[in-house]
Amino acid sequence: MLNRDTLLEAYKLMVTAKAMSDTFEANQQVCKYEHSTSRGHEAIQIATGMQLLQCDWVSPYYRDDSMLLSLGFTAEELMLQLLAKKDDIFSAGRSYYCHPSNKDGIRPSIIHQSTAAGIQAIPTTGLAQGIQFLENSHSALLKKGADGESPVVVCSLGDGSVTEGEVSEAISYAVLKKLPIVYLVQDNQWSISASADETRASDAYEYTAGFKGLKRLQCDGSDFLRSYETMQQAIGHARLERKPVLVHAKVPLLGHHTNGVRKEFYRDREDLLKHGLYDPLPKMRLLLNGSGYDEHEINNAEADAQRIVAESFQKAIAAAEPDVKTVEDHVFAPTTITDEKGDRSPKIGEKVMMVEAALHAIEEIMEDHEEAILYGQDVGRRLGGVYRETANLAERFGDSRVFNMPVQEAYIVGSTVGLSAMGVKPIVQVQYGDYIYPAFNQLVSEISKSSYLTNGKFPVGMVLRVPVGAYNGGGPYHSGSIESTLLSVKGIKVAYPSNAADMKGIMKAAFYDPNPVVVLEHKGLYWSKVAGTDDAKSIEPSRDYILPLGKGNVVLAAETDKVKKGASICIITYGMGVYWAKAAAKKFPGQIEIIDLRSLYPLDEALIFEASSKHGKVIVLSEEQQNNSFAEALSLRISNNCYYFLDAKVEVVGALNLPAVPMNMHLEAAMLPTVDKVIQRIDKLLKY
């Protein structure tokens, strides 16, 4: 409630933020890491933070230190992150100033964000999506306020970031589904050194007029009273009506863009003076005078804030640096799935195809876990996936748990960050590997870094299914192999099953893993329609069967006498490569050992190195274009670790280095590895 005491508290927070900014500026050699401050934005930020409850979620952006102060974080806590110290409660010295994360249960919760230049809108909208799901399913996972208040989400953005396409995806989905979220846009007329006139045809308020159902509000964000009233209306609407709101707050930019990008580099004197006229602090001081506070009281409040900031800064300087031994901590959350369990081949089981095994695995997961949801393009009612890989799941579990999505790959993937934080377990699908690239920003910038940069607070538990691979003239946008692209990203796991039993076991392991797992599913193996892939069908494993990630499998062993004579070869492969290798091996009875990796990260290096050392001759076989690929990287790793046991250099067999898979089936075959090409390479190695 806004009263006289609230005004004084807000002023204390304002002068605290200013004192922090002044301190950082006066100590540039100490405050050497990149940072921004909220000078000019204090009023709207504090008006927002003061009205949020413990049950709420907020995503501040990189200039929101005033908001963080108003949420209850101390100057010292913020400074420990500024100086990248060990006791930084947000990231343990790993992330920038004002890149917070919180799940202490005392203050509003905050998920990881990257640089918060627009793309944070998708994970944050995923939070609101999660809240709505938990509300509709009456889940005990939903946390309410002390007086039963429903939680809301606030996503803070600079106006320049609204031109980012992912902001539109987020707002579009929030409006479509009527999600309880407030988008707070702070408009200071600058995007680093580019002025508003250079970068936009309209501001955020005007731009979002076409989003039907979005409540829009504007205010002078340098005026605390107007800001408080506007945010009270916005948060109240989201909390009671459970619908999205956008607040466009005009604010001055009084500080530098960052400590490294100085305002004098790109702003003239006239612009700086114009912004200075809207400084929130003199306005707030006049408001206090009008509310009955005398100069002595105001000066004392200011002096107290400056003293606390000075003391906090000295403590932060003296605080310990992180232990370098912790640098690899929290890349992943620990998984409990470490052993193969259940019956892989029940005696009374029936043979199923890979697509059926995946379907049954998800069906069993959703029966056992109410928090499991499945969404993507065309996976819901009516079609059930373009390969019928989700057939009838919507009919069984309802449209709230299995549903279609707009053509928004970035939102499909990035929303899992927020959903996971809410305790929901999303299984999502991108229609083809070639379509994953619009989602890559979210996968790289948000999902993969979340656990590491929150010091383990927010690993993203999600499963991303991606049909991949070429066969039967699928053409350039439905046939791509993307594993090397994915494996260049650290902080995600990548599985690649080649048969129905592995598919079911891996899908279960991926679901129970608390980390992001991408499951690559070769669409040519789904139905075993490709000649020679009948072995992709298998007896369906039991309901409790689970196959840990990172466990390879010897699918064909060489004869011992051939190994002893040095007349054997090890082929290391995955996916369709397993079947090329098995067909080629028929020409060399007893001489070929085939390892199916099943998981590309984590990778079963122990099995790979043991087999490579035993045989001395190794082929790494992949469907992917060969140059700069995972297969080539693996060949080097084998060479480095097994050098003294190798009889020849490790051979790599991959596809031709073309930008896409051509449509014509003869051209497709010319590009891809074939059984004959593998036979030729085996023959070459055996003659070495």
TrEMBL record:
Keyword Transit peptide (UniProt): no
E.C. no: 1.2.4.4
Domain spans labelled Transketolase-like pyrimidine-binding: 352-528
Database matches in InterPro entries: DH_E1, THDP-binding, Transketo_C/PFOR_II, Transketolase-like_Pyr-bd, Transketolase_C
Known cofactor(s): thiamine diphosphate
Alphabetized CDD domains for the sequence: TPP_E1_PDC_ADC_BCADC, TPP_PYR_E1-PDHc-beta_like
Keywords: Oxidoreductase, Thiamine pyrophosphate
First-level EC class: oxidoreductase
Protein function: E1 component of the 2-oxoglutarate dehydrogenase (OGDH) complex which catalyzes the decarboxylation of 2-oxoglutarate, the first step in the conversion of 2-oxoglutarate to succinyl-CoA and CO(2).
UniProt name for this protein: 3-methyl-2-oxobutanoate dehydrogenase (2-methylpropanoyl-transferring)
